[in-house]
What does this fold into?
Amino acid sequence: MESATGKDIPDKRCRRFGIIAVEFGFITPEQLKQALSEQIDDDLADNPHRLIGKIFVEKDWMTYQQIEIVLKELFMEERL
It folds into this structure.
């Protein structure tokens, strides 16, 4: 793939936190969409940015242990 500057951009995609949480069955796709919407609304309103995992915990959709599991998976993928 080529960028606007004419340089190649690697096509490797990293799964995001919310996608991994859905794949592990910790949250539903609908919950992910709702949390992303809240995150964007906060950002557009100049409210402090909330990480998606924090939103999941605030809504009691995920536990801190589940957050840790997703983060470990995410960081393992980044090392590969």
User: Anything to note?
Assistant: The radius of gyration is 15 Å. Helices lie at 17-23, 29-44, 52-58, 64-79. Residues 22 and 29 are 6 Å apart (CA to CA).
